[in-house]
Protein backbone atom coordinates (compact mmCIF):
# COMPACT_ATOMS: atom_id res chain seq x y z
CA UNK A 1 0.00 0.00 0.00
CA UNK A 2 1.37 3.39 -1.00
CA UNK A 3 -1.32 5.53 0.66
CA UNK A 4 -2.12 3.60 3.83
CA UNK A 5 -5.02 5.21 5.76
CA UNK A 6 -4.51 8.52 3.96
CA UNK A 7 -7.54 10.79 3.77
CA UNK A 8 -8.00 12.07 0.23
CA UNK A 9 -10.41 14.26 -1.70
CA UNK A 10 -10.49 14.33 -5.52
CA UNK A 11 -12.58 16.78 -7.54
CA UNK A 12 -13.90 15.83 -10.97
CA UNK A 13 -13.66 12.20 -9.87
CA UNK A 14 -16.84 11.19 -11.66
CA UNK A 15 -15.02 10.68 -14.96
CA UNK A 16 -11.69 10.29 -16.74
CA UNK A 17 -8.47 11.06 -14.89
CA UNK A 18 -10.23 11.88 -11.61
CA UNK A 19 -12.09 8.58 -11.58
CA UNK A 20 -8.94 6.58 -12.43
CA UNK A 21 -7.10 8.41 -9.63
CA UNK A 22 -9.89 7.77 -7.11
CA UNK A 23 -9.89 4.05 -7.93
CA UNK A 24 -6.10 3.82 -7.71
CA UNK A 25 -5.80 5.88 -4.50
CA UNK A 26 -8.44 3.66 -2.86
CA UNK A 27 -6.66 0.48 -3.98
CA UNK A 28 -3.51 1.88 -2.37
CA UNK A 29 -5.26 2.29 0.98
CA UNK A 30 -6.66 5.83 0.89
CA UNK A 31 -10.10 6.76 2.15
CA UNK A 32 -11.44 8.74 -0.82
CA UNK A 33 -14.04 11.49 -0.98
CA UNK A 34 -15.22 11.73 -4.58
CA UNK A 35 -16.42 15.18 -5.65
CA UNK A 36 -18.14 16.07 -8.89
CA UNK A 37 -20.92 18.24 -10.27
CA UNK A 38 -22.14 15.11 -12.09
CA UNK A 39 -24.05 13.04 -9.53
CA UNK A 40 -24.35 9.94 -11.69
CA UNK A 41 -20.63 9.80 -12.50
CA UNK A 42 -19.59 10.63 -8.94
CA UNK A 43 -21.85 7.99 -7.37
CA UNK A 44 -20.60 5.43 -9.91
CA UNK A 45 -16.96 6.06 -8.93
CA UNK A 46 -17.71 5.78 -5.20
CA UNK A 47 -19.78 2.60 -5.79
CA UNK A 48 -16.99 0.99 -7.80
CA UNK A 49 -14.50 1.71 -5.00
CA UNK A 50 -16.81 0.25 -2.35
CA UNK A 51 -17.52 -2.83 -4.48
CA UNK A 52 -13.75 -3.35 -4.69
CA UNK A 53 -13.54 -3.28 -0.89
CA UNK A 54 -12.29 0.30 -0.60
CA UNK A 55 -13.61 3.27 1.36
CA UNK A 56 -15.32 6.05 -0.57
CA UNK A 57 -18.11 8.56 -0.35
CA UNK A 58 -19.53 10.92 -2.95
CA UNK A 59 -20.19 14.61 -2.27
CA UNK A 60 -21.99 16.57 -5.02
CA UNK A 61 -19.84 19.64 -5.54
CA UNK A 62 -19.57 22.56 -7.89
CA UNK A 63 -15.95 23.63 -7.52
CA UNK A 64 -16.78 27.23 -8.45
CA UNK A 65 -19.14 27.58 -5.48
CA UNK A 66 -17.32 28.39 -2.19
CA UNK A 67 -19.93 26.87 0.20
CA UNK A 68 -19.78 23.59 -1.77
CA UNK A 69 -15.99 23.41 -1.58
CA UNK A 70 -15.85 24.36 2.10
CA UNK A 71 -18.45 21.67 2.89
CA UNK A 72 -16.56 19.16 0.72
CA UNK A 73 -13.34 19.54 2.71
CA UNK A 74 -15.25 19.28 6.00
CA UNK A 75 -17.01 16.13 4.80
CA UNK A 76 -13.73 14.55 3.61
CA UNK A 77 -12.25 15.12 7.10
CA UNK A 78 -15.37 13.73 8.80
CA UNK A 79 -15.49 10.69 6.51
CA UNK A 80 -11.78 10.00 7.01
CA UNK A 81 -12.43 9.73 10.75
CA UNK A 82 -8.91 10.84 11.69
CA UNK A 83 -9.51 14.57 12.12
CA UNK A 84 -7.27 15.35 9.16
CA UNK A 85 -6.96 15.74 5.41
CA UNK A 86 -3.84 14.30 3.81
CA UNK A 87 -4.40 14.71 0.05
CA UNK A 88 -6.43 17.22 -1.99
CA UNK A 89 -6.39 16.63 -5.74
CA UNK A 90 -7.92 19.61 -7.54
CA UNK A 91 -8.59 17.85 -10.83
CA UNK A 92 -11.99 19.09 -12.09
CA UNK A 93 -11.76 21.05 -15.30
CA UNK A 94 -13.51 21.86 -18.55
CA UNK A 95 -12.19 22.41 -22.06
CA UNK A 96 -12.68 25.28 -24.46
CA UNK A 97 -11.76 25.52 -28.12
CA UNK A 98 -11.04 28.80 -29.88
CA UNK A 99 -8.41 31.38 -30.76
CA UNK A 100 -8.58 34.53 -28.66
CA UNK A 101 -10.75 36.36 -31.22
CA UNK A 102 -13.14 33.40 -31.36
CA UNK A 103 -13.59 33.25 -27.58
CA UNK A 104 -16.55 35.15 -26.17
CA UNK A 105 -16.50 36.68 -22.70
CA UNK A 106 -18.97 34.16 -21.29
CA UNK A 107 -16.92 31.21 -22.50
CA UNK A 108 -13.71 32.78 -21.17
CA UNK A 109 -15.31 33.43 -17.78
CA UNK A 110 -16.71 29.89 -17.53
CA UNK A 111 -13.34 28.23 -18.25
CA UNK A 112 -11.48 30.50 -15.85
CA UNK A 113 -14.19 29.94 -13.21
CA UNK A 114 -13.97 26.13 -13.27
CA UNK A 115 -10.29 25.68 -14.06
CA UNK A 116 -8.77 28.52 -12.00
CA UNK A 117 -11.33 29.67 -9.38
CA UNK A 118 -12.21 26.00 -8.76
CA UNK A 119 -8.57 25.12 -8.10
CA UNK A 120 -8.08 28.24 -5.97
CA UNK A 121 -11.08 27.35 -3.79
CA UNK A 122 -9.94 23.73 -3.42
CA UNK A 123 -6.49 24.93 -2.41
CA UNK A 124 -7.78 27.61 -0.07
CA UNK A 125 -10.00 25.36 2.04
CA UNK A 126 -7.53 22.44 1.95
CA UNK A 127 -4.70 24.69 3.18
CA UNK A 128 -6.94 26.08 5.94
CA UNK A 129 -7.67 22.52 7.08
CA UNK A 130 -4.06 21.34 6.78
CA UNK A 131 -2.80 24.29 8.82
CA UNK A 132 -5.55 23.75 11.44
CA UNK A 133 -4.50 20.13 11.86
CA UNK A 134 -0.96 21.21 12.65
CA UNK A 135 0.50 21.09 9.14
CA UNK A 136 1.39 18.34 6.73
CA UNK A 137 -0.47 17.23 3.65
CA UNK A 138 -0.24 17.20 -0.08
CA UNK A 139 -2.08 19.22 -2.71
CA UNK A 140 -2.15 18.27 -6.40
CA UNK A 141 -3.40 20.74 -8.96
CA UNK A 142 -4.38 19.74 -12.48
CA UNK A 143 -2.57 21.86 -15.06
CA UNK A 144 -1.74 20.68 -18.61
CA UNK A 145 1.23 20.50 -20.97
CA UNK A 146 -0.47 23.45 -22.70
CA UNK A 147 0.86 25.60 -19.82
CA UNK A 148 4.30 25.18 -21.43
CA UNK A 149 3.66 24.72 -25.16
CA UNK A 150 1.16 26.58 -27.29
CA UNK A 151 -1.50 24.66 -29.20
CA UNK A 152 -3.85 26.00 -31.84
CA UNK A 153 -7.19 27.49 -30.76
CA UNK A 154 -6.99 26.96 -27.00
CA UNK A 155 -6.64 30.55 -25.76
CA UNK A 156 -8.83 30.41 -22.65
CA UNK A 157 -7.93 26.84 -21.76
CA UNK A 158 -4.18 27.55 -22.04
CA UNK A 159 -4.53 30.68 -19.90
CA UNK A 160 -6.38 28.69 -17.24
CA UNK A 161 -3.79 25.92 -17.07
CA UNK A 162 -0.88 28.41 -17.04
CA UNK A 163 -2.54 30.09 -14.08
CA UNK A 164 -2.80 26.77 -12.23
CA UNK A 165 0.92 26.10 -12.68
CA UNK A 166 1.87 29.60 -11.47
CA UNK A 167 -0.52 29.33 -8.51
CA UNK A 168 0.99 25.97 -7.57
CA UNK A 169 4.55 27.29 -7.48
CA UNK A 170 3.64 30.42 -5.58
CA UNK A 171 1.51 28.49 -3.08
CA UNK A 172 4.36 26.09 -2.44
CA UNK A 173 6.50 28.94 -1.13
CA UNK A 174 3.83 29.84 1.43
CA UNK A 175 2.96 26.24 2.29
CA UNK A 176 6.45 24.78 2.70
CA UNK A 177 6.90 26.06 6.28
CA UNK A 178 3.69 24.17 7.18
CA UNK A 179 4.96 20.88 5.75
CA UNK A 180 2.43 21.02 2.91
CA UNK A 181 3.63 19.89 -0.52
CA UNK A 182 1.94 21.46 -3.56
CA UNK A 183 2.56 20.05 -7.03
CA UNK A 184 0.97 20.33 -10.46
CA UNK A 185 0.44 17.66 -13.10
CA UNK A 186 0.84 18.53 -16.77
CA UNK A 187 -0.74 15.81 -18.93
CA UNK A 188 -0.59 15.74 -22.70
CA UNK A 189 -3.56 14.37 -24.60
CA UNK A 190 -5.25 11.67 -22.55
CA UNK A 191 -8.12 9.69 -24.05
CA UNK A 192 -11.08 10.59 -21.81
CA UNK A 193 -14.64 11.87 -22.39
CA UNK A 194 -13.06 15.35 -22.29
CA UNK A 195 -11.02 14.65 -25.44
CA UNK A 196 -13.85 12.73 -27.12
CA UNK A 197 -16.07 15.82 -26.66
CA UNK A 198 -13.35 18.07 -28.03
CA UNK A 199 -12.96 15.88 -31.13
CA UNK A 200 -16.73 15.77 -31.74
CA UNK A 201 -17.13 19.54 -31.41
CA UNK A 202 -14.02 20.57 -33.33
CA UNK A 203 -13.87 17.94 -36.09
CA UNK A 204 -17.43 16.71 -36.74
CA UNK A 205 -17.28 13.64 -39.00
CA UNK A 206 -13.45 13.74 -39.01
CA UNK A 207 -12.80 12.53 -35.45
CA UNK A 208 -10.60 9.59 -36.49
CA UNK A 209 -8.44 11.79 -38.74
CA UNK A 210 -8.01 14.31 -35.91
CA UNK A 211 -7.15 11.52 -33.49
CA UNK A 212 -4.44 10.33 -35.87
CA UNK A 213 -2.95 13.86 -36.02
CA UNK A 214 -2.85 13.93 -32.20
CA UNK A 215 -1.12 10.53 -32.13
CA UNK A 216 1.50 11.82 -34.57
CA UNK A 217 2.38 14.86 -32.43
CA UNK A 218 3.22 12.69 -29.39
CA UNK A 219 6.59 10.90 -29.39
CA UNK A 220 4.81 7.90 -27.85
CA UNK A 221 2.69 7.64 -31.02
CA UNK A 222 -0.35 7.11 -28.82
CA UNK A 223 -2.65 9.10 -26.57
CA UNK A 224 -2.28 8.65 -22.85
CA UNK A 225 -4.72 6.72 -20.67
CA UNK A 226 -6.34 8.11 -17.51
CA UNK A 227 -4.38 5.44 -15.60
CA UNK A 228 -1.08 6.96 -16.83
CA UNK A 229 -1.95 10.24 -15.12
CA UNK A 230 -3.40 8.52 -12.06
CA UNK A 231 -0.06 6.73 -11.56
CA UNK A 232 1.77 10.08 -11.61
CA UNK A 233 -0.76 11.52 -9.13
CA UNK A 234 -0.25 8.51 -6.87
CA UNK A 235 3.49 9.06 -6.83
CA UNK A 236 3.14 12.77 -6.00
CA UNK A 237 0.56 12.02 -3.30
CA UNK A 238 2.68 9.32 -1.67
CA UNK A 239 5.46 9.73 0.87
CA UNK A 240 7.91 8.64 -1.87
CA UNK A 241 7.59 12.18 -3.24
CA UNK A 242 8.49 13.78 0.09
CA UNK A 243 11.26 15.83 -1.55
CA UNK A 244 9.10 16.92 -4.53
CA UNK A 245 7.82 20.43 -3.87
CA UNK A 246 6.33 22.97 -6.28
CA UNK A 247 6.96 20.84 -9.36
CA UNK A 248 5.03 20.53 -12.60
CA UNK A 249 5.17 16.85 -13.47
CA UNK A 250 4.86 16.36 -17.23
CA UNK A 251 2.95 13.22 -18.31
CA UNK A 252 2.57 13.82 -22.02
CA UNK A 253 4.02 11.00 -24.14
CA UNK A 254 6.88 13.29 -25.14
CA UNK A 255 4.67 16.03 -26.59
CA UNK A 256 6.70 18.86 -25.08
CA UNK A 257 10.10 17.13 -25.24
CA UNK A 258 10.59 17.48 -28.98
CA UNK A 259 9.38 16.63 -32.45
CA UNK A 260 10.09 13.32 -34.20
N1 LIG B 1 -7.86 14.59 -21.11
C1 LIG B 1 -6.82 15.33 -21.41
O1 LIG B 1 -6.24 15.20 -22.51
C2 LIG B 1 -6.27 16.32 -20.44
C3 LIG B 1 -5.01 16.88 -20.69
C4 LIG B 1 -4.49 17.79 -19.80
C5 LIG B 1 -5.21 18.17 -18.67
N2 LIG B 1 -6.43 17.62 -18.47
C6 LIG B 1 -7.16 18.05 -17.28
O2 LIG B 1 -7.45 16.94 -16.47
C7 LIG B 1 -8.65 17.19 -15.73
C8 LIG B 1 -9.60 16.03 -15.89
O3 LIG B 1 -9.86 15.88 -17.27
P1 LIG B 1 -10.51 14.57 -17.89
O4 LIG B 1 -9.90 14.41 -19.23
O5 LIG B 1 -10.50 13.47 -16.92
O6 LIG B 1 -12.00 15.15 -18.12
P2 LIG B 1 -13.45 14.52 -17.91
O7 LIG B 1 -14.37 15.44 -18.65
O8 LIG B 1 -13.46 13.07 -18.22
O9 LIG B 1 -13.66 14.71 -16.34
C9 LIG B 1 -13.79 15.99 -15.76
C10 LIG B 1 -14.76 15.90 -14.60
O10 LIG B 1 -14.84 17.20 -13.99
C11 LIG B 1 -16.20 17.42 -13.65
N3 LIG B 1 -16.49 18.85 -13.53
C12 LIG B 1 -16.62 19.77 -14.52
N4 LIG B 1 -16.97 20.94 -14.02
C13 LIG B 1 -17.07 20.79 -12.68
C14 LIG B 1 -17.42 21.66 -11.60
N5 LIG B 1 -17.75 22.95 -11.82
N6 LIG B 1 -17.41 21.15 -10.36
C15 LIG B 1 -17.09 19.85 -10.13
N7 LIG B 1 -16.78 18.99 -11.10
C16 LIG B 1 -16.77 19.46 -12.36
C17 LIG B 1 -16.99 16.78 -14.77
O11 LIG B 1 -18.34 16.52 -14.39
C18 LIG B 1 -16.18 15.51 -15.02
O12 LIG B 1 -16.66 14.43 -14.26
C19 LIG B 1 -9.18 18.53 -16.26
O13 LIG B 1 -8.78 19.57 -15.38
C20 LIG B 1 -8.49 18.70 -17.58
O14 LIG B 1 -8.34 20.04 -17.96
C21 LIG B 1 -6.98 16.70 -19.30
For the biggest sheet, the summary is: 7 strands, parallel
Bound molecules: nicotinamide-adenine-dinucleotide
- Could you state the order of secondary-structure elements as H and E? EHEHEHEHEHEHHHE
- Give the domain tally: 2
CATH superfamily of the largest domain: NAD(P)-binding Rossmann-like Domain
Instruction: Let me know the number of strands.
Output: 7
Per the principal axes of the C-alpha atoms, what is the gross shape?
A: globular
Number of helices: 8
Name the strands of the widest sheet in spatial order.
3-2-1-4-5-6-7
CATH class of the largest domain equals Alpha Beta
Instruction: Label the structural class.
Output: alpha/beta
Q: What Rg is obtained from the alpha carbons, in whole angstroms?
A: 17 Å
CATH architecture of the largest domain: 3-Layer(aba) Sandwich
* Average residue-wise pLDDT: 97
Determine the CATH topology of the largest domain. Answer: Rossmann fold
Q: Estimate the helix proportion, in percent.
A: 40-55%
Low-confidence stretches: none
Amino acid sequence: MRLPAKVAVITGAGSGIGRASALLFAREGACVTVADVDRVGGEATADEIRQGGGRATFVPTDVTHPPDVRALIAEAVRFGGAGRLDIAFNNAGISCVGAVDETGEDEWDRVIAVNVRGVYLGCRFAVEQMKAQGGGGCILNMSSSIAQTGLARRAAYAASKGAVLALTRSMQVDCAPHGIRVNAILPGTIFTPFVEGYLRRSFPGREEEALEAIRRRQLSGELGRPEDVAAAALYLASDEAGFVLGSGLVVDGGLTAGKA
